[in-house]
Amino acid sequence: MSIESQLKAQFAENRDIVQALLDDGSEPDAEYTIEHHFSSSNFERLEKAAVDAFKLGFEVNDAEEMELEDGSVIFCFDAVAYHKLEIPLLDKATEQLLQLAAKQKVDYDGWGTYFVGDEIDDEEDDEDDEQDDGFPH
């Protein structure tokens, strides 16, 4: 899939995720922790992507190793930002990060965040309420 096609699909998903959160009663003016997901079977490529994400101003967490159902291993990390659920900010970040992923030949797996509101008080519910792209992370 071309970068343009990926961007178009991601921009639509950005709107869907934000709308789902707001429809569920998440706070529209809160600051959110936005976790952009990256993965690759090549650790060195993933490491270069992490450095590039850091240079773009994202907080980068440590890479983790994950075994998939078929027994293969991938490495993954999140590039984290903190801001409101504003579509222009999300679109800009996803465009930058999709281009970074293409450059480093790693996968950009979308982003996720957590519901912010008065109703959620315990950590178990927080984990269940992450809005994400459907990929296991």
Question: Would you write up a description of this structure?
Answer:
- This protein is α+β, with helices and mostly antiparallel strands.
- 42% of the residues lie in helices and 23% in strands.
- The chain contains four helices and five strands.
- It has helices spanning 3-23, 43-55, 87-104, 123-128, and strands at 32-40, 59-60, 64-67, 73-83, 107-112.
- Strands 1, 2, 3, 4 and 5 form a five-stranded antiparallel β-sheet that branches.
- Strand 3 and strand 4 form a beta hairpin.
- Helix 1 (3-23) runs antiparallel to helix 3 (87-104).
- The longest helix has 21 residues, at 3-23.
- It starts with a helix and ends in a 9-residue tail after the last helix.
- The relative contact order is 0.23.
- The model is unreliable at 120-124 (pLDDT under 50).
Ordered list of secondary-structure elements with their pairings:
Layout lengths: L2 H21 L8 E9 L2 H13 L3 E2 L3 E4 L5 E11 L3 H18 L2 E6 L10 H6 L9
Antiparallel strand pairs: 1-4, 1-5, 2-4, 3-4
Offer a few descriptive terms.
137 residues; globular; five-stranded antiparallel sheet; alpha+beta; 23% strand
